[in-house]
Amino acid sequence: MPRTFLLICLACLLTTPSLAGTVRGTLAPLPEAKARPTPLRDSCFWRLGLPAAPAVLPPLLVLEGDAAPVPPAATAEIALSGFEFQPAFLVVTAGSTLTIRNHDPREYSCAASGAASFQIEKLPPGSNAEKKVTSEGTVELRCHGYPFIHAVVLVLPKAVWTTPDAEGKFQFANVPAGEYKARAYHNGAWHFESSVTVPAQGTIQLALGKAPPDRPEKAPGEGVPPPPVPEKPKPSPPPEPPATVKAPPPEKPQPPPPAPAPKPKPAEPKPKPEKPAPKEPEGGFKDVEPEVEVEVE
User: CA-to-CA distance for 107 and 134, rounded, in angstroms?
Assistant: First the structure.
């Protein structure tokens, strides 16, 4: 009896459909990263040879939501080899342990900034260091003395992710039903955020960005608007008579300005009356000074 009951329960579990759906879609083209000139401080490492050009990474499609499966605690590894981090871009979940291993024959000193901040003072050849990342976001790794050595670690919460193909098409399979937020990560930035409801069964279509949804092919000539009907020429209106221009009225002659009044002449001085000459005394005597005789002893 117990054995029969267990077989029945196992058969029920196998026949019960899983509450998970599939998300398919297309991602619109994303802006290309601008080439940055080599800083002057990097040019002093010419003896080491030119650093390898950073690999062109495809966009990362992410579905985030509480319904996403809880990721187990994992350990991700990033190596230092040939004056570079390998890989230069890494995706982990929050709570994972990041192992940095040195494969070069020289000692490094590394530091992290962003969502996680830590310092590795000495990383001798053949050694490794472990750091736990618990916060969501972007972590940048650099090495002191070698500014061209750089890596990015993207820390995600409860989420599932994938990469699109060359045509921008992607697919998420066996996604637990629920509400999600879909977006794309590329060139250090997030693009095209959209809300998604994943059903318990079936497939939904998702277009991120301006990519048109998949449509059936049209027959030749289908959907082409007919050519426009030429309009009949309208009769031109009769020409308007030329407008008569009125001559301006003649200007009135202005009177000449009045002549200035003559200035009055100064009055001439009156002649003074002449004094009458003194009359001579009668008898013919004239005024004669008397003679005075002075006796001298």
Answer: 27
Question: Contact at 8 Å (CB) between 102 and 127?
Answer: yes
Separation between Cα atoms, residue 70 and residue 251, nearest integer Å = 101
pTM over 0.70: no
Q: Length of the chain in residues, anyone? A: 297
Do residue 55 and residue 119 come from a single domain?
no
In this structure, what token pair is assigned to residue 201? 């069964």
Domain with 189, as residue range(s), is: 38-70+158-211
**Residue 57 domain-assigned?**
yes
What are the Cα distances from residue 136, in Å, to 64, 131, 172, 217, 288? Answer: 12, 15, 22, 43, 154
Does residue 295 sit in helix, strand or coil? coil
The parts of the chain modelled with pLDDT lower than 70 are 1-18, 33-56, 71-73, 210-226, 230, 241-249, 262, 264-297
